[in-house]
Amino acid sequence: MNQAKNVASTTDSDIVVMKFGGSSVADNNKLKNVASRVIDHYDAGKKVVVVVSAQGDTTDDLLEKAAQVNPNPSKREMDVLLSTGEQISMSLLAMTLENMGKNAVSITGWQAGIKTEDKYSNARIISIDVSRIMQELNNNKIVIVAGFQGINSIGDITTLGRGGSDTTAVALACELKAEFCEIYTDVDGVYTTDPRIVPNAKKLTDISYDEMLELASLGANVLHNRSVELAMKYNLPIKVLSSFERISGTIVKEMNQVEKLVVRGVARDNNTSRISVIGVPDEPGEAFQIFDTLAKANINVDLIIQSVGQNHSKNVSFTVAKSDRAEAIKLLEPMVEKLGALKVNYNDDVSKVSIVGAGMVANCGVAAAAFKALSDASINIKMIATSEIKISVLVDEKDGEGAVKALHNAFIEE
Ligand code: ADP
Ligand code: ASP
Ligand code: MG
Q1: Over the stretch 237-290, which tens digit does the pLDDT of each residue have?
Q2: Secondary structure E strands in 254-323
Q3: Is 190 in the pocket of ligand 1 (CB under 6 A)?
Q4: Is residue 85 part of a domain?
């Protein structure tokens, strides 16, 4: 994202950006609750920008509607359709506020000046021209912006990827030089793992950008990973708060802990598929051909393992997002002959489970303890990947929940 054209050069502590997720705006009573949270800031003299997601399961319902008329719709038309969900919420919230006697205006992504890359369905924000928002704020309006959407260089509507309203909010907070961004959701903060899987997960008072970025990228959907990436770049604190309870939440911020915790959180990602290319000749250049083909199609590859070559052949396995699996297979199957491989297969019923902690780098034995916890729970590991601050394992989807519980129990509840 480029620098703003049109805002104050220092932090503007008068501007507050609040984002409300789908379950927080799901019905009329919830909209009233959101409106009252917004009015609290407005009546305290703040300039308030509100970002909203689509109501409840609207985005999933729209995906389902599309599938009924075309099993393989173009990404452009999908973005036109999905962007309507947020437009319903924004107008209903503006009307609710009007009915409560407040001046509010709702605007779409393009009206809010949000420009994105040309690609559809998962576009990044390139720049934001906040002049329209500033004009409305200066007229004492509460400005409600549709989350998850922008406009590309040819004037088409684009969307930012599932969960992308968080990124709209953080990007606006950065451009408007707000002091922080508030993300209101259906949990009261970031926990050591998804509290819906592990009820005794612990709420974190604060968490570093690095750790939150890993957790979000590895499946903790409480924050969209790009929102954390942006907040880190601009050093903007994110407050994760409950829409329903007025209690303190979690602050995501720059942290220089003296003693870094070995494991801060556990994440699970079910949106992953394993692909294997079997019987690849044990020769240079084969992996390059496979991954170059996927990269050119913008398919992101995650965990990779290559078996040791035996009898001049090896297997190359990797994971991709479930939504990319069909395209990856379509690209790789015709290459089997050219590669001199035997076949390509895949498995969608897998889960990636990860432990994250900035202190992992300085502690040996973390991997061994993780594998022991999984072995004690009789969970078979299919793939492993590590970095300085995380260890990820791929397991059968049916074992995903058990793996989260076993790792949480071993590292956090000890
Ligand atoms: P919203 O619609 O408000 O954007 P999301 O469903 O995208 O809400 O994100 C909130 C959900 O994230 C929670 O209901 C919870 O189940 C899930 N979640 C996953 N990991 C975590 C975690 N570590 N801490 C808190 N919530 C988590
Ligand atoms: N409505 C979109 C989704 O369901 C964006 C969001 O909620 O952040 O993914
Ligand atoms: Mg979300």
Answers
A1: 999 999 999 999 999 999 876 567 789 999 999 999 999 999 999 989 999 999
A2: 265-269, 272-281, 301-306, 313-321
A3: yes
A4: yes
